């Protein structure tokens, strides 16, 4: 296994490579305010992060990644356009896989630019690919933006669209909601009984917890409204499934998605963005004819990715995590920018894993 000194040396070399590409070196605190991440991702983030409490600063979280603090830094006082690079430890719980480290080093490269998003996507991908070129890694790509556009184009209520969009990164929950909203799955008995009761609050036990009676009543009203909504059509569910089932090299994936767009025009603009990205990647010498695209790729990564997503994997070691991952996160800048926003894309490399694979080669 690589030693810490070796990992730090490789991390410094990778960061210098990104600096040579025009990135400014930045540092972020290891301890981050937990409130920001909890607001972004809800309580789910607690299962993946280390949280502590400070009498003066409140809940703090050991840095689970760099993107959120880098975005905060840029939105507070960054110039435009901007390129950043960084390196340091991140901390993730691994309750389902004790063999994976819960502390490891990342090196990253981020671009904040309003012009030519496809070119920025291609630049980040190509820089990381070149840094990993000594290894024969499998590259995978996807586009969360296409699935988000498909959800927004569904002929259903806005609350249902919001719920589906919120759970894009939770495939099982997304599927359960889609099955329920389309009428393919029965209403849970407890909910059916609640909806059948003319005045469920009249016989309810005394309220406990943080919700007021008015909030509970509003929730019941929302459930009644949802129950009365027209089911999502089987045709539209099949189109969502068709997008998720796309697994081709980029040119063939583009053709398949164009065909789907004929019946689901809501994804047309996102498909044009994919076409622009393919052309930008080709200009940077990426063999797009051999590059994989998966319609469902990126749905189990951090929830801020909302467009292009990618990863590099050791094909002979499927048990290992990706050596590098990245993607576009435009919406995150809007959330953290307090009224300001700027398109952004970036990626990270795990130098420790890179060294380990080199030793195995």
UniProtKB/TrEMBL annotation:
<dbReference type="GO" id="GO:0006427">
    <property type="term" value="P:histidyl-tRNA aminoacylation"/>
</dbReference>
<dbReference type="Pfam" id="PF13393">
    <property type="entry name" value="tRNA-synt_His"/>
</dbReference>
<dbReference type="GO" id="GO:0005737">
    <property type="term" value="C:cytoplasm"/>
</dbReference>
<feature type="binding site">
    <location>
        <position position="92"/>
    </location>
    <ligand>
        <name>L-histidine</name>
    </ligand>
</feature>
<dbReference type="GO" id="GO:0016757">
    <property type="term" value="F:glycosyltransferase activity"/>
</dbReference>
<feature type="binding site">
    <location>
        <position position="110"/>
    </location>
    <ligand>
        <name>L-histidine</name>
    </ligand>
</feature>
<protein>
    <recommendedName>
        <fullName>Histidine--tRNA ligase</fullName>
    </recommendedName>
</protein>
<feature type="binding site">
    <location>
        <position position="106"/>
    </location>
    <ligand>
        <name>L-histidine</name>
    </ligand>
</feature>
<feature type="binding site">
    <location>
        <begin position="304"/>
        <end position="305"/>
    </location>
    <ligand>
        <name>L-histidine</name>
    </ligand>
</feature>
<dbReference type="InterPro" id="IPR006195">
    <property type="entry name" value="aa-tRNA-synth_II"/>
</dbReference>
<comment type="subunit">
    <text>Homodimer.</text>
</comment>
<dbReference type="InterPro" id="IPR045864">
    <property type="entry name" value="aa-tRNA-synth_II/BPL/LPL"/>
</dbReference>
<dbReference type="GO" id="GO:0004821">
    <property type="term" value="F:histidine-tRNA ligase activity"/>
</dbReference>
<feature type="binding site">
    <location>
        <position position="299"/>
    </location>
    <ligand>
        <name>L-histidine</name>
    </ligand>
</feature>
<feature type="domain" description="Aminoacyl-transfer RNA synthetases class-II family profile">
    <location>
        <begin position="13"/>
        <end position="351"/>
    </location>
</feature>
<feature type="binding site">
    <location>
        <begin position="65"/>
        <end position="67"/>
    </location>
    <ligand>
        <name>L-histidine</name>
    </ligand>
</feature>
<dbReference type="InterPro" id="IPR041715">
    <property type="entry name" value="HisRS-like_core"/>
</dbReference>
<dbReference type="InterPro" id="IPR004516">
    <property type="entry name" value="HisRS/HisZ"/>
</dbReference>
<keyword id="KW-0808">Transferase</keyword>
<keyword id="KW-0328">Glycosyltransferase</keyword>
